[in-house]
Amino acid sequence: MTTYIPRLNSIPYDVFANPAASVLLPVVLGTAVGFSSRPKQTQATYLAMKQPPLRPPPQVFGPVWTLLYGLMGYAAHRVVTRSSSPFTSTDQIRGLYSAQLGLNLLWMPLFFGLRRPVLALADIVSLVGLNGYLTYLYFSVDSVAGWCQVPYMAWLGFATYLTAGVGYLNNWDISEATLAKRT
User: Fold this and answer.
1) Less Cβ crowding at N or C end of the chain, within 10 Å?
2) 3-class SS letters over the chain
3) How distant is the alpha carbon of residue 117 from its chain centre?
4) Angle (nearest 5°) at CA 21 between 132 and 108
5) Virtual torsion, Cα 69, 30, 10, 161, nearest 10 deg
């Protein structure tokens, strides 16, 4: 199926060929996006929103995402350096991985920056679909890489639940003005 996907701009092969670079790239980018969103303000916003059951405390997200970014980078390294599948080229895997990383990094600015839970939900649903396909491809190339994706897929499912729950419980309006009325 991926043979019909046009070549996408993607992270260079050399990044994936180096295990440290492959792991550190998503960790550093994710950390940069996290800190650019002003963590204290983001935590205050998070606590001001009506939340669905099972929501974790805000301090959980940073460590969980750091671990997941590391796993996703390691999985990508393993797949790109081991791929000899006639059905999937490394260019296609790198393009799909780059697209999912972009969608992942976009979620926080959509949700906490622009305060658009509908757009954030569309982003994360796309992210789940793309990563479901990537997980399938990863398992076809390297089972360790596929299993590295499983915690990420589970967390994305949970994050989708949280995004939809927050949106629904807050009538899809988490603007500063609306949240200020509640405090």
Assistant:
1) C
2) CHHHCCCCCCCCHHHHHCHHHHHHHHHHHHHHHHHHCCHHHHHHHHHHCCCCCCCCCHHHHHHHHHHHHHHHHHHHHHHHHHCCCCCCCHHHHHHHHHHHHHHHHHHHHHHHHCCCHHHHHHHHHHHHHHHHHHHHHHHHHCHHHHHHHHHHHHHHHHHHHHHHHHHHHCCCCCCHHHHHHHC
3) 15
4) 50
5) 70
Look at residue 41 in the predicted model and tell me its pLDDT: 77
Q: Tokens 């791929």 belong to which residue?
A: 83
Does residue 1 have a pLDDT over 60?
no
Query: Cβ–Cβ contacts within 10 Å for residue 107, how many?
Result: 20
How many residues are given for the chain? 183
* Residue 39 structure tokens: 């963590």
